[in-house]
Structure formats: structure tokens, C-alpha cells
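I am writing to request your help with a piece of structural work I have in hand. Thank you for your consideration; the sequence and its C-alpha cells are set out here:
=====
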Amino acid sequence: MQPQHFRYAEDDGIATIRLDRPERLNALTFESYAELRDTFRALEPRASVRAVVITGTGRAFCSGGDVKDIIGKLLEKEESELYAFTRMTCDLIEAIRALEKPVIASLNGTTCGAGAVIAAAADVRIASEDAKIAFLFTKVGLSGADMGAAWLLPRIVGLGRASELLMLGEFVDAGRALEIGLYNKVVSRAELEAETRAWARKLADGPSHGLAVTKRMLNREASLPLEDALQLEAWIQAECMKHPDYREAYEAFLAKRAPDFVRNAPGLRAAEPAR
């Protein structure tokens, strides 16, 4: 893949999407929103990718929509154009959640607005100690329920804390984000890349079928009563027991070796350099 509005690289099953407008704190434009959406959609059938990292360049992960290139121009749009834009931003989040491969948000700095929701849509959030975060939509006169934030956040931090984050729109520091469960891990800026790589390596080497089903069930069971969730899990787990990964784990245990789940997946392509 050769995106025009951010960098993309592949290496040994791990795809890295790097937002690369450091002079604008990696703010998004109409074009980069659309290209991110299309990229996450394209990653689903891409056999060379088993895990995805999204991160930023410089002192910010993503500061949301660009004030000059998006926010100002939206004031001049017709109603149908406004909805087309908000629907596109929601489609990006839907593409991240629908991608049945692990997605890690590696938060290298300031994370706010749309950037905060992109981080929430990822499966795991690893942050540098200076990665403050804010869902600041109410600060600009909008609803805190934007891009799926009101669906995602309560499932991560609970309704009370989600209400606080979305209604106040204030920044919380990395320590507080870790304390409330919004971040999975916080490390120094110097350690962030290596820590992210280690998590991505574990996930990329894991059972891709089992991980895909896990993410699918996390999405689906959000709206199911317990009885239906149990019935669905019983059926899908029985299906997973027929997959080669289950036998591989058993044989590896008997042989006292690490399981090789990658061999049961489609072949990986050679590393693809950043563009």
C-alpha cells in the first residue's frame, strides 16, 4: 500500500500506520480521514498483516480535525455535506473495530478529539508518560458523543468516568488514564517504540483465528443478554476447536515447544518499507 497522507510500513506480519504532520500535531484533513478509513478496510484481506500499530510523529499522536483545513470549512457546508463528513469519520472508527486483527494505538504524545476516539477504537493503548488525552468535543460546542465515543468509552472505563471525560472534555494525564483503565500501559517516551513492538510481536505471533473471533465477539456481545452471549460463545468455541491452531497448541504442549500459529496462516510477504 502507498498512502498519500500518512506513512505505512510492514515488517514480519506487523503493519505500522504513522500519522506524519508533526508541524500540525498530526491533525487530520478530509483526505486523511478517508484514506485512513480505506486503509483499515484494506487490511482485512491482507494476508501479510497479522497485527496493526497506529502512531504519530513528533510530540503528538493526533490532535483531531485540523482547525484550518476542517473545522473552519465545516461552517460553510450544507447540511447534507455536514452529515457526509460525520458519517465518514464514523466509518473510520467502524473500520478499525471491524478489522479482525489486533490494533494497537501507540500514543507518543498529545491525543485529543478524533485522535482520542481513534485511540479508544484500538484494541490496546500503550502510551508515553507525556501522552495526555482529551475528548474535547464539548469544548468546541459539540456533543461528546462523536465518532462512537459514547459507545466505546463506557465499555473501557465505565459509564461514570466516560460521562466525566465526554461532558467536561478536559485533558487527563497518562497516569490518570492508566489508573482508570483507558491506557493499558504507560512507559517513557524512550521505551514506547520497543514496548509497542513487543506487544505487536506477541499478537502477530498469536493464533490469528482465535484473536479474530475474540474481537468479533467483543463487538457482538456488547448488545446481547447473557443467555444469548453464552449460547453464541459455546457455538463459536466449538468451531474454533476444529481450527488447526487448536491442534498446534496441543501438539506444542506435548512436545514442550512454543506453538507456531503463523504456519497455519497464509504466507507473509517480505517487509514493506515505510512510504
About this structure: The two ends are 9 Å apart (CA to CA). Confidence is low (pLDDT under 50) at residues 267-275.
